[in-house]
Every structure is written in structure tokens, then in C-alpha cells.
Design a protein that fits this description.
Rossmann fold, alpha/beta, about 15% strand, seven-stranded parallel beta sheet
Length: about 240
């Protein structure tokens, strides 16, 4: 029985990788930069994404968003207040998004008219690391209340991400949180990873983060340079596109 389970898992992952490659090709052809946000539950993905969508819209960037949850459309309704088109993916118990879920919810969107597509993954520190969604950039969020050792306990999530964002930095003092320690822990499992610190509540650090997203969009625009997931290569190359 165990070998059959392993074989089934390999088949599922192979199918997901094939669909993710198709998605990635579509994203390249339509010139849309796709950002996949991964984190534990409660790390602040929805609040941060709301701030991002609102700010980018004010800066004349066109965005779309899909959000995954086991149940309810609470996050999608919150994000929709930004005025950006949003769709909810209810996974009915799945602890992660898969490529076919994303493809099924964006198939009729005009991606070519958008600059960004944001994917808010299901809150989980394990499964989302394994499933490629065709994204240009995978961003792992680490919130201050989680402490400093999450990168050490869940290294694969950080190893498969391109950028780390420490959220809720306004709580650092009350949580006795040491940003330098978590930065060192991130570097120990993902050397060279760029790390941002911000608070979506107070706005601290948001300007730097938004400027990074805009720069990523405008400077990494060569269509042949695509983010290659860990399942296809050991390289951590990334890519977005124009403005």
C-alpha cells in the first residue's frame, strides 16, 4: 500500500507541473506578472494584499486577484472592496491551491489587459511549497507573532520562495520579536533571499515593498526568462515582465 500512495502522489505532482507549465506559458504570452503569496494562516496575506491592490490601482497598474480558502468567501469579499476583480477559490478541504484550480478560475479573464495577477494561497506552511502555479514570483510571508524560528521549522516553504516579507512589524516590541534573528534564520535556509519588513496596518515599509513590485514588473520583462520551479531545476531564477 505505501508504494501505491507514493506513486499516486508522484502522478498528481506530475500533472500539476504540466498544467503549471501551460499556465506559465499563457502568462508569458499575455505579459502578466503573477505573484503567489504563501504563508501560515493569520500571517496577514489578505490585509497586505488589499493594501497592495489599492496602491497599485492608484498608481495606474491593472491588477487581478484570486484567493484560496478551505471555506467561505470572506477574504475575496474584503479584497473586492479595493475595486479590483477578485475571484474566490474554495478548496473544500485542500490545504493548498493547485494549477488546475487557478486555471479554472481565470480562464475567461483578459490577462493581456492586466499588469499583475495576485494569487493568495491557502494558509499553510507545508503543502503550498510543493505545488507550482505558474507564478513569476513566489513570496513567503512571516508574521511577527509567529516568532523567529519558522524558517528553520519549515525550510521548504522558504527554499521554494523568491522573496520573504516579515509582516506585522508594528508588533515587534510587544512580541519581543528580533528581526535580525529571523533574517539570519531565513538566510541560513535560503542564502541571498531578499527580505522586507512592513506593517500593512501602519504603512511602515509599504513604500519600499510597492516600489519593489513595480520595479520587478518593469525591469524583469524578458519573456524568455521564466521562473523555473524547484521541481524542474535546482535554479531559483525568477521573472516578471514590462510595464
Amino acid at each position: 500500500m505505501p508504494p501505491r500512495i507514493l506513486e499516486l502522489r508522484k502522478k498528481v505532482l506530475k500533472k500539476n507541473d504540466e498544467l503549471a507549465r501551460e499556465l506559465r506559458q499563457r502568462f508569458v504570452e499575455t505579459d502578466v506578472t503573477v505573484i503567489n503569496l504563501v504563508s501560515s494562516p493569520g500571517a496577514g496575506k489578505t490585509t497586505l494584499l488589499f493594501r497592495i491592490l489599492t496602491a497599485l490601482q492608484q498608481a495606474d497598474f491593472q491588477s487581478l486577484a484570486v484567493v484560496g480558502d478551505l471555506a467561505t468567501d470572506n477574504d475575496a469579499r474584503q479584497l473586492a472592496r479595493s475595486g479590483v476583480p477578485v475571484r474566490q477559490i474554495t478548496t473544500d478541504g485542500y490545504c493548498h491551491l493547485e494549477a488546475d484550480m487557478v486555471a479554472g478560475h481565470i480562464h475567461d479573464w483578459d490577462l493581456a489587459s492586466s499588469d499583475f495577477l495576485f494569487i493568495e494561497n491557502v494558509g499553510n506552511l507545508v503543502c503550498p511549497a510543493t505545488y507550482d502555479l505558474g507564478e513569476s514570483l513566489r513570496v513567503v510571508l512571516h508574521s511577527v507573532p509567529e516568532g523567529e524560528d519558522k524558517p528553520l521549522k519549515y525550510p521548504k516553504l522558504f527554499n521554494t520562495a523568491d522573496v520573504a516579507v516579515i509582516t506585522k512589524i508594528d508588533l515587534a516590541a510587544v512580541c519581543e520579536f528580533d528581526p535580525q534573528t529571523v533574517r539570519e534564520n531565513i538566510q541560513s535556509v535560503r542564502p541571498g533571499m531578499r527580505v522586507f519588513e512592513l506593517s500593512a496596518k501602519t504603512g511602515d515599509g509599504m513604500h519600499q515593498w510597492l516600489e519593489f513590485l513595480k520595479e520587478f514588473r518593469t525591469t524583469t520583462q524578458t519573456k524568455s526568462e521564466i521562473r523555473i520551479p524547484e521541481s524542474e531545476t535546482n535554479s531559483s531564477a525568477t521573472n516578471g515582465r514590462k510595464k
